[in-house]
Protein: Serine/threonine-protein phosphatase
Organism: Takifugu rubripes
Amino acid sequence: MVRGSDNGSEKMAEGDNSAELLKEKANQYFKEKDYENAIKYYSEALELNPTNAIYYSNRSLAYLRTECYGYALADATKALEIDKNYIKGYYRRATSNMALGKFKAALKDYETVVRVRPNDKDARMKYQECNKIVKQKAFERAIASDETKKSVVDSLDIENMTIEDDYAGPKLENGKVTLAFMKEMMDWFEDQKKLHRKCAYQILVQVKEVLSKLPSLIEIALKETEKITICGDTHGQYYDLLNIFKLNGLPSETNPYLFNGDFVDRGSFSLEVILTLFGFKLLYPDNFHLLRGNHETDNMNQMYGFEGEIKAKYTAQMFQLFSEVFQWLPLAQCINNKVLVMHGGLFSEDGVTLEDLRKIERNRQPPDSGPMCDLLWSDPQPQNGRSISKRGVSCQFGPDVTERFLNQNKLDFIVRSHEVKAEGYEVTHSGKCITVFSAPNYCDQMGNKGAYIHLRGSDLKPEFHQFTAVVSFLFVSLVFCPLSLVCSQKINSVLFPH
Ligand SMILES: [Mn+2]
């Protein structure tokens, strides 16, 4: 009996030992920022020892890094179920909830951390940041109810904004965006100079007018001889955007583009990216297309840098106007009745038709569920059916879901973005679901290629073009994000797994 139980615990110890080795291996991958492999080995460690809170907590952090906030939250919760005194678990759960915009839930966990570790400066800072947001949200709700929403446009007097004599930058010509203006502005931005606020406001007011007249589902027809270039996420990587134009030509009436959302946040040059894209929209309204991504929203902009960037470069009022403009970005685009493009993907329920998309009232922050939410947030998955989202918003859809949707709507395939891919693009669901991502070396560290797609009217066969990042380390990297816990890549004692 005794001997037997000894053997049992020896075996257990062996299992623990190899689980520890797997964890060490995972930690090494994490250090090298190879989060996919880190997740793989934490998962293997958990198979051997499913009662270790640290493994869950470490995997939670790796999920946070890959923006799988739904999974990150589940792991942090699991770590706390196993060990409710495990302080890092509270940190992780708070971070996940922050990323999901659940600030009150996050605040509760930060409170716990601060109570247990009164001398932890980092924890105190996070607690204060979070507390500020909770109060601000409550204030916004309070004023929203007694004031009908007024547009920033009504309170601007753009005509009477004066451009100082010492301003040597680009100006609109008689209030109009021209090709000469666009070229001058792109050079100006390349030198990291600031566009006069009058010009920025002119672009914003005009583009709001143009976008608000568009339907939620854009439908275009390419002639036999025409082609369109589809780009995925650009995320404030201005120098990579310029590189796309260098490689693929400037936008024009004969060189149409479709940019598939997530123009802002993450990168330090979101303002430069979005004003360049808006400028081309004004110059070629019928041949230059923009769709909304999940980052063209207030919640994301608050957490991932764009709001901070606009406040630093201009004012809070200008950010408000950006927010109004974003609400008018169309949600999907159909090409030759055969190819449907959207930022995220397909829907949480079967039966959604193109007619349903046309009817979406999009001038709002996206709801938590329904077709508008899904278009901006969902992801494909390899297995059939649907599962809960790794991000904690919308769903994941399988090849059968894609097949049914395409059949019902008489479409050939979908093109979406929203996920970083090593090669810049990925073809899944037997060629029916294509991902394209145009921010190479995403966040200055993912090492991925960027890609864009050519679609020709003659055959609508996707043709992929890959490119690598321009040397962005030459440029000062500025982070405009108030919530360092969510988005900073800085590794400190709290963030690093153990
Ligand atoms: Mn996205």
